[in-house]
Amino acid sequence: MAASAWFRALLLIAVFSVQASSAPNADAAGLRVPLVVVEPTTKVADVDKLIGNIERVKSKYGHRGDISRTSSLRQRGAQPITDDNGSPTGMISIGTPPQKLTVLFDTGSPDLWVTSSTCDNDWCNQLTGARFDVSASSTAQRQAGTFNASYGGGESAVGPIYTDEVTVGGVTIKDQYFSPATDQVGFTGNTVGVLGLSLASISDLKQPPFLQHAVQEGLIKSGVLGFRLNGAHSEAFIGGTNPSLYTGPIEPHPIDPSNGFWQAPGGTVKVNGKAVLENVSTIIDTGTAGIVGPPEQVALFWKAVPGAQEDAGEGVWTYPCDADVAVAFSWGGKDWELSADDLNGGDLGDGTCFGNIFAVDLQFGDNVWILGSNFLNGVYAVFSLDDMTVGFATPK
């Protein structure tokens, strides 16, 4: 839809200091949730996956333009959310007795939905993960309304609205709102839904998402969520941070709530130690693969990389695979570097590689970027409801 309520967060207005004292406390008293990030086993370019990542960003953030702009690379319909798209998935349970389900842990959306056992379409039939059976839960309660999230890329989830017991990392909420989607398009493999972890009153469910609800119920010590994306050793940490996974202080940055996301303004993009873009505003999103920026700024970025060229005017860029290029993002403190592997989107076999920094007009302004899993692989990320900041620390 034109401005997807599914992936917009609670609009709050706050003014915070960026002093080190405002950093969330290092606190291992929270609860660990093991996650898995399945990365490609080869660096050979995968055009289908590249296009899928771009199309998901367009649809997720309410892109109003022509969703088929990438058709000159390859015509696509709905883009599958598979188990190897570089985003974190983990286990939650819903119902009584609890039913274990694998979902995408997504800081770019507020709502919880899972595929229902009654879903019977081509996409649902491709799922290998367990689906939720409402009739098997004695605590499931039907609520008014219908959940309906649709995307320009062809992805959608539609279903009734329920409350039930939901457990994430040992934290159980008795009456969490969610949708057991009876019709979904776009998800395949073991991942059967989404756990939204943004702020959210502008959601389809119109109810607090899991993290905020847990704070309100006094179930966790603090409204802090730590993330470490590191392949099979990834984790989310609910109610604090896990000091065993990072070293040094957490560098916090107040979010700009005007677009409703975990959005840190005042960023700088550097290439080989030189600032090529300043005053960029960055949405930090675990549910997005790659890094996305507005076309004019992305073009300026790639022009600073020797040998880089735009591919067919589609917002996709290639560069020499052997290029000696160092990329970093900064918000006035440390330079947070992007590894060579996270910049590289795949070898085309002719000495050039796709770049994992794409151009998409998000229509939020000419300086708004999305930093997804390719950036988050190199940091320990902290999302704080307590002081409305997003922060980073050096991972171990």
Brief descriptors of the model:
7-stranded mixed beta sheet, 396 residues, mainly beta, 6-stranded mixed β-barrel, 25 strands
In short:
Helices cover 10% and strands 38% of the residues. It is mainly beta.
Walk me through the structure.
With 396 residues, this protein is mainly beta. The protein has helices at 47-60, 210-216, 295-303, 340-343, 373-376; strands at 31-36, 89-94, 99-106, 112-115, 141-150, 156-168, 171-181, 183-185, 193-196, 224-228, 234-238, 246-254, 263-271, 274-284, 291-293, 309-311, 316-320, 327-330, 336-338, 344-347, 352-355, 357-359, 368-371, 380-384, 389-395. The strands form three sheets. Strands 19-18-13-14-23-15-22 form a seven-stranded mixed β-sheet. Strand 10 and strand 11 form a beta hairpin. 51% of the residues are buried. The model is unreliable at 1-26 and 63-80 (pLDDT under 50).
Question: Secondary-structure map with pairings?
Answer:
Layout: E1 31-36, H1 47-60, E2 89-94, E3 99-106, E4 112-115, E5 141-150, E6 156-168, E7 171-181, E8 183-185, E9 193-196, H2 210-216, E10 224-228, E11 234-238, E12 246-254, E13 263-271, E14 274-284, E15 291-293, H3 295-303, E16 309-311, E17 316-320, E18 327-330, E19 336-338, H4 340-343, E20 344-347, E21 352-355, E22 357-359, E23 368-371, H5 373-376, E24 380-384, E25 389-395
Parallel strand pairs: 3-9, 4-7, 14-23, 15-22
Antiparallel strand pairs: 1-2, 1-11, 2-3, 2-6, 4-9, 5-6, 6-7, 6-8, 10-11, 10-24, 12-25, 13-14, 13-18, 15-23, 16-17, 17-21, 18-19, 20-21, 24-25
